[in-house]
Amino acid sequence: MNEVYNYLKDIGTYYLATSEGDQPRVRPFGTIAIFEGNLYIQTGNVKKVFAQMKKNPKVEICAMGKDQTWIRITATAVRDDRVQARQHMLDEYPNLKNMYAADDGNCEVLYLKDATATIYSFTEKPKIINF
After folding, report:
1. What is the DSSP string of 17-84?
2. Domains and CATH numbers, the chain
3. What CA dihedral angle connects 92, 94, 97 and 100, to 10 degrees?
4. N or C: where does the chain have the smaller number of CB atoms within 10 Å of the terminal CB?
5. How confident is the model over 34-84, as pLDDT tens digits?
6. Is 117 helix (H, G, I), strand (E, B) or coil?
């Protein structure tokens, strides 16, 4: 999991895919943190992406590395409603404090459960990481 965290943290922007009915939805994300042994993302609960994850928590993340490798992660997004988890994310990304607070009723953090990350390369076999 640490390798996946470092990969996404180094990139800065990754793309999160959800579904809305039969339509896939993809958008850029930039938050990633490890808290109590889980990999977390963050969003606001007024956003469509949060409603989509509540209805169908299966997500995929995709990003291109600076070394021309790319990663795809399949997982189930699980909401963590603890203030401590939200505060940890805000401490990792202080710029979010302009938009969110740990107890504002909007900030949401979700951890990735039953995740499989695959790192691909044009020159090597794919590397699979389960967490």
Report:
1. EEEETTEEEEEEE---EEETTEEEEEEETTSHHHHHHHH--EEEEEEE-TTS-EEEEEEEEEEE--HH
2. 2-130 (2.30.110.10)
3. -30
4. N
5. 999 999 999 999 999 999 999 999 999 999 999 999 999 999 999 999 999
6. strand
